[in-house]
Design a protein that fits this description.
Structural class: alpha+beta
CATH class: Alpha Beta
Order of helices and strands: HHEHHEHEE
Strand order of the largest sheet: 1-2-4-3
Distance between the termini: 26 Å
Shape: globular
Number of domains: 1
Number of strands: 4
GO molecular function, one term: oxidoreductase activity
Largest sheet: 4 strands, antiparallel
InterPro entries: NAD(P)H_nitroreductase, Nitroreductase, Nitroreductase-like, YdjA-like
Pfam families: Nitroreductase
Radius of gyration: 17 Å
CATH topology: NADH Oxidase
CATH superfamily: NADH Oxidase
Helix content: 40-55%
Cofactor: FMN
Strand content: 15-25%
Family: Belongs to the nitroreductase family.
Low-confidence stretches: none
Length: 172
């Protein structure tokens, strides 16, 4: 199989795989490193590399789940609060081996859309590398992420655009 055929096969195989389909097996450190490193090869104008990725595993991951549940409880109108959704937030995080927060650093050198687009391409690289390594993943952008700035220690010119869930695939 030539490189173009391999790339085509990976692109066609790429899917969002959700935490309910993840196994308990941890992602090997070298595979996770490869997935994260692939983001660095995304095209970006003026070489700003605007993506900011923060990795959450183990106890840090659980703290992120708790924070997201707290944000949900604090921001939803009392009449719209659903206990099941509140519990599902932490549960979905706990079913994942790794969560990567996806934030954009706006350099001021380029239009914001270019920095957002470059970040999306970095995430696509992570999707493709995950697929090539048979790791399930998906990018989620719940409204709660707009309240994560302090928790993620983001600077004024940075904004969180999502959560990238990762796990070894158990079932499909």
């Amino acid at each position: 199989m030539n490189e173009a055929s391999v790339l085509k096969a990976i692109i066609e195989k790429r899917r969002s795989v959700f935490p309910k389909n993840y196994s308990d097996l941890p992602i090997k450190e070298e595979i996770l490193a490869e997935i994260l490193n692939s983001a660095n090869f995304a095209p970006n104008h003026k070489k700003t590399k605007p993506w900011r990725l923060k990795v959450f595993r183990n106890e840090e991951k659980n703290q992120l789940g708790q924070k997201l549940a707290e944000i949900y409880k604090a921001t939803v109108a009392p009449q719209n609060f659903l206990e099941k959704k509140y519990l599902d937030i932490s549960n979905k995080i706990s079913m994942s081996d790794t969560i990567v927060t996806i934030s954009v650093n706006f350099s001021g050198l380029l239009p914001e859309w270019e920095e957002i687009a470059a970040t999306a391409m970095a995430v696509q690289n992570m999707y493709l590398t995950s697929t090539a390594n048979e790791i399930g993943c998906y990018w989620s952008s719940p409204g709660m992420i707009q309240h994560l700035n302090e928790f993620l220690e983001l600077e004024e010119n940075q904004r969180c655009y999502g959560l990238f869930y990762l796990g070894n695939v158990a079932t499909m």
